[in-house]
């Protein structure tokens, strides 16, 4: 098997987070990195028939706990997962970016490059993170709507 730069990166990522380099873990990382949207466990199950539901659940749980992926909810309340930035750790996720839910195709996008407003909480509140959602049409669905 030829090792790609991605495979080497994923192996390094698993080493960094003290996780065993197993074929299912490497496949999940590869699948998630190939997508431009957050992905639910049921969608991953449909794409990866050779990994059973329990194994996939355990992989996603371990990845979230270690700061490799973060969870974001879609319009139906379903958990979706996306790769974290390289500065996320086991103790703190840095997923404070805009999560965009497309109302047409139902995809969830992590918009990492958006400038977000400062959040000033009242005295006594200690934030440990925050999530900001926006709803609307993604570029692909916007183009389809204009053509109609």
Automatic annotation (TrEMBL):
Gene Ontology molecular functions: DNA-binding transcription factor activity; transcription cis-regulatory region binding; zinc ion binding
Pfam families for this protein:
FUR
Q: Which SUPFAM superfamilies match?
A: Winged helix' DNA-binding domain
Residues involved in Fe cation binding: 92
Cofactor list: Zn(2+); Mn(2+); Fe(2+)
Protein source organism: Mucilaginibacter celer
- Please give the InterPro entries that the UniProt record associates with this protein: FUR (IPR002481), Fur_C (IPR043135), WH-like_DNA-bd_sf (IPR036388), WH_DNA-bd_sf (IPR036390)
Similarity field: Belongs to the Fur family.
Top-level taxonomic group: Bacteria
Q: Keyword set for this entry?
A: DNA-binding, Iron, Metal-binding, Repressor, Transcription, Transcription regulation, Zinc
**Record's cofactor remark:** Binds 1 zinc ion per subunit. Binds 1 Mn(2+) or Fe(2+) ion per subunit.
Gene Ontology BP terms: negative regulation of DNA-templated transcription; regulation of secondary metabolite biosynthetic process
Where do the annotations place Zn(2+) binding? 102, 105, 138, 141
Please identify the protein, giving its name as recorded. Transcriptional repressor
């Amino acid at each position: 098997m030829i090792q790609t730069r991605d495979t080497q990166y994923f192996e390094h990522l698993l080493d960094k987070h003290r996780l065993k380099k197993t074929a299912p873990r490497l496949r999940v990382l590869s699948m998630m990195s190939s997508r431009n949207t957050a992905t639910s466990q049921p969608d991953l199950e449909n794409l990866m028939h050779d990994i059973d539901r329990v194994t996939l659940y355990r992989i996603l749980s371990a990845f979230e706990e270690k700061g490799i992926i973060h969870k974001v909810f879609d319009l139906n309340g379903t958990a979706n997962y996306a790769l974290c930035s390289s500065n996320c750790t086991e103790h703190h996720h840095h997923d404070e970016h805009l999560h965009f839910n497309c109302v047409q195709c139902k995809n969830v996008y992590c918009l990492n490059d958006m400038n977000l407003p400062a959040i000033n909480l009242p005295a006594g509140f200690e934030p440990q993170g925050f999530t900001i959602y926006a709803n609307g049409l993604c570029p692909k669905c916007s183009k389809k709507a204009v053509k109609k």
